[in-house]
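Quick one, probably user error.
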């Protein structure tokens, strides 16, 4: 099975937004953003935590240069990182978390 959908990894995005942090595990990112982790290692729990973290990362990512954002995708050359090849970012225009980017 081939998976070639665009990817934007919250761990890699966190590493670009917060390069001096020691850890970019989901729990560490959640703690940094004061996001409550409930149901860790369950599909729904991990999805909800990841979504909330992503909403908090997007405005921070919008302050970075295109080159800095593109570096989040360099670690996954086999998968295109959606939105990192276009400026202005974000991939989901018009949502409350991303309106500042447009």
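Nope, works fine. Designed sequence:
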């Amino acid at each position: 099975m081939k998976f070639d959908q665009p990817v934007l990894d919250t761990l890699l995005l966190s590493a670009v937004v917060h390069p001096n942090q020691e850890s970019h595990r989901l729990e560490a990112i959640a703690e940094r953003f004061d996001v409550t982790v409930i149901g860790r290692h369950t599909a729904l729990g991990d999805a909800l935590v990841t979504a909330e973290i992503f909403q908090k990362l997007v405005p921070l990512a919008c302050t970075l240069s295109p080159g800095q954002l593109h570096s989040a995708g360099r670690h996954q050359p086999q998968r295109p990182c959606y939105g990192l090849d276009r400026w202005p970012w974000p991939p989901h225009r018009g949502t409350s978390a991303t309106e500042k980017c447009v």
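Residues 10-95 form one domain.
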